[in-house]
Amino acid sequence: MITADGRYYLKHGKHPRQVQAEKERLKGDAAQAAQAPADGAELISRLQSASGKITVPDPAAQTRGRWRAAYYDALHHGHVPTGHKLRWNGRQRGDCVFTLIDEEAEKAAQPPPVPAVDVPETLDRPHRLVRATRKVLGRSQRVVDTRGKPEVIPLYLSRPLADRALRIMHALLTEAEGRDYAVEAQSDLKHGEAVHMVAIVIRCRAFPLALTERTNKVPHEPTPQELRQQERNPWTRLPKYDEEFNGRLALGAPTGSWSQHSYSYSDSARWTLESRLGHLLQDLERVAAEADRREQEKELREAEQRRRWLRGRRAGSRAADRAAPGDGSYRADSGLAAGRRDPRLLPGSPHPSRRRAGCGGRGGLA
Asked: What is the Cβ-side half-sphere exposure of residue 61, based on CA atoms within 13 angstroms?
């Protein structure tokens, strides 16, 4: 059944409680507006006494207008102190947050800029892997694909971008070796097939790299051969779309690997791949440091578990020594008690091997 509140919502688009809350908020609008700062100087004074931040919870129209007037008065009449800037969030809806920011302190709190990696215009002395890849490319190919070849850089792109791709890889691999990281061409077996890759090794952790060109999905245009084949076999299905290179290079973890989304960059509308090489190396260092931290935490947890287990075992042995009488009757009584739990542990059991196996478990007496 549709209730009265539901009918009201269908007619006005708001729940009656929302309307009531809005009326109560507007009822106190005039009183809240009277508490707003009169001008920009008062706003700056309040901010300085409030450690640089004031929050006005979801004000109504009149109150928001008074705070807005004080904000613009502070900006346009020179009330903002030198070396500071005034920010205002929540101009149209929600909470109004006014912040007075010290520019020098903000700059000091920002992380240092990532060092850029220079990409040469020409390759006079290319990296050894770049030189080996250039020899494999040939001259008459329209598409460069070296992903299945050993001792070369995995590339999959159109031929016009091959020179730029090699210059980018030369700059990245040279910079990695300059930071004392190893650059290796590795081969592995995956699903019964050989997989060749180039990896940067940081702290004994290999990060494989692949350089590809991004593609766009375009409608498939049937070739004359496909049309003739479809005429002979009407049930033949032609693909709806084709993948077409779009001229944007992407460098990072190979597609389908466990680290596919951990470190990857590509050309975009805001930057080129050349400007992101420093960020890529920073991501590799971050991932390696995070992996080391997780391993150390795991080792500490395992060591703590071993210490707790040993303490429990020693405490059990000491308790047994204190409770055991000197004539050895404790062993017989303890054997009978164990036999009540498991008949195979009674003295004279026909399965001594099972008795030894049961008592040798974790936490038992050796």
From this structure: 3
User: pLDDT band at residue 284, thresholds of 50, 70 and 90?
Assistant: very high
What are the C-alpha distances in Å from 255 to residues 208, 251, 252, 259, 271? Answer: 10, 10, 9, 9, 22
Residue ranges with strand state E in the chain: 53-56, 84-89, 96-102, 143-145, 155-158, 182-190, 193-202, 205-219, 241-252, 264-266
DSSP helix, strand, coil percent of the chain (3-state; round to 5): 50, 20, 35
The token duo for 5 is 């509140």
Three-state DSSP class for residue 209: strand
- Determine the length of the chain: 366
Nearest to 121 by CA among 174, 175, 168, 176: 168
Q: Tell me: the pLDDT tens digits for 3-59?
A: 888 887 888 887 878 777 766 766 777 888 888 898 989 999 999 998 889 998 888
Q: What is the pLDDT of residue 339?
A: 47
Residue 77 and residue 208: Cα distance in Å, rounded? Answer: 58
Q: Is the dihedral of CA 294, 296, 298, 300 positive or negative?
A: negative
**What pLDDT was estimated at residue 366?**
34
For residues 211 and 168, is the Cβ–Cβ distance under 8 A?
Answer: yes
Structure pTM?
0.63
Check: CB of residue 344 under 8 Å from CB of residue 354.
yes
Task: Classify residue 154 as left (phi > 0), alpha (psi -120 to 50) or beta.
Answer: beta
From CA 20, how far away is CA 25, in angstroms rounded? 9
